[in-house]
From TrEMBL:
SMART domains: TPR. TPR repeats lie at residues 372-405, 508-541. Residues 546-556 have a biased composition (Basic and acidic residues). This is Anaphase-promoting complex subunit 7. It holds the Pfam family TPR_16. The keyword Ribonucleoprotein does not apply. Pathway: Protein modification; protein ubiquitination.
Amino acid sequence: MDPGEAAILESSLRNSYRLFVPLPPLPAALPGRMNVIDHVRDMAAAGLHSNVRLLSSLLLTMSNNNPELFSPSQKYQLLVYHADSLFHDKEYRNAVSKYTMALQQKKALSKTSKVRPSTGNSASTPQNQCLPSEIEVKYKMAECYTMLKQDKDAIAILDGIPSRQRTPKINMMLANLYKKAGQERPSVTSYKEVLRQCPLALDAILGLLSLSVKGAEVASMTMNVIQTVPNLDWLSVWIKAYAFVHTGDNSRAINTICSLEKKSLLRDNVDLLGSLADLYFRAGDNKNSVLKFEQAQMLDPYLIKGMDVYGYLLAREGRLEDVENLGCRLFNISDQHAEPWVVSGCHSFYSKRYSRALYLGAKAIQLNSNSVQALLLKGAALRNMGRVQEAIIHFREAIRLAPCRLDCYEGLIECYLASNSIREAMVMANNVYKTLGANAQTLTLLATVCLEDPVTQEKAKTLLDKALNQRPDYIKAVVKKAELLSREQKYEDGIALLRNALANQSDCVLHRILGDFLVAVNEYQEAMDQYSIALSLDPNDQKSLEGMQKMEKEESPTDATQEEDVDDMEGSGEEGDLEGSDSEAAQWADQEQWFGMQ
């Protein structure tokens, strides 16, 4: 071999040898260069959750196969970012699992004074990295638990955070969870802590007022900010208004909110209009309630809050087509709120499709277990399906959530009456009367129960007279007074009562009952007119339809008899009786089904 070939062979051998000799490792991280954890963090901050989920999953698998690949702090970050991406995808149980692993990793990290260096991707100073907050991780875990309906676990995880380290949002969540669990004292403490840190947290103010904290005490906690920040002079009046709301003083609450709403700076505020609509509804003024809901809806076409009550009122008025349109519009806005399901349920309920109403009410409760209107819908559907004991459970829960709403008590009392538990109904009605005060609504509710017992008929009459003295236009009181008059066969008094009530309002039930009374005094033509008006207001009112059909059926043979009498008179020259059959009128007056009241 000549010297040239020998040199080529030696060079080739050396190159081959280099292939099997590992190169010296690269620096762990050069100044100014990002490692893979930095990229994951940036994608998470940018909201690229699906990308974070994929990459962090791969990196965690790599770390499991090679524990030396990432430092403990880097693995902690990966677990948190991966759990965050799962939370965003609503995989709450899986997210809780990853958050738990992250906290375990963080606990081990805090015990380690010296972090082991990684082989390839660790930063030069991992201890100094901005790690995800352990407090924030626990808050996310609590959010997962609440979504999974595991409130006790959520309270436990937040209770484990020292008081001094709790942020306002942690205290707010704790306050709401305590309130839901019926733990009023710690709930009040947490709400006050929120206000101490954020004195303009209005929802925390409402929370305190709902727990019977005095309005003056709540207002004192915001006094400094009212005095130092301009244009907040309305806040003390706002607190006063909602203090009235939560004590059940509807009339003073309405007047106070109206004074706020009339101020130029707060005119046409959707939240105030919604509150006014709800207060009118609680006070039994359905007409003004509907008007305020419509006004709020015009200002904000995407409004969802309160639309369940609005839909219920429309359904009661027989405007089922409007209810159906409202439900479709709300579903287009969001199907993750209880309101559209309740509105559709009201349409089904007043269409007498109780099984469907029950399903829709249950779906609404699943989305929001604090939805009072959903509980009332489901309770009413259960009651009408004969499942009274189950209905009672739902009405009691509604009362717990809204102790100042009379319709919750009305539903429960109707269940007691349906099961012939008059004593329980009387106890409940008396408690409502004492708790909410002697107003037209509570007086009528107590009278309703008294009407079920022959011994207390006179008491019912006295209570109804008091209610009508306070509010002559209160429909429920008028209906019950008419029922009492029909039992006493005082039809002329009943007609006068109903005409007076209908002078300034038009209501399907009142027109129908007036028709019943007119039949009893042989005023058939006007009775037919009243039934027609009732059906124009509510085409689905079965009792008005039955009344009209019965009149038509009874009139046909009468007309035929009259024609025969006329023929006889013409033939004989004798006078005939054209007055019709008095016995038929008496028979109608005796039939109590003509005076069926709602």
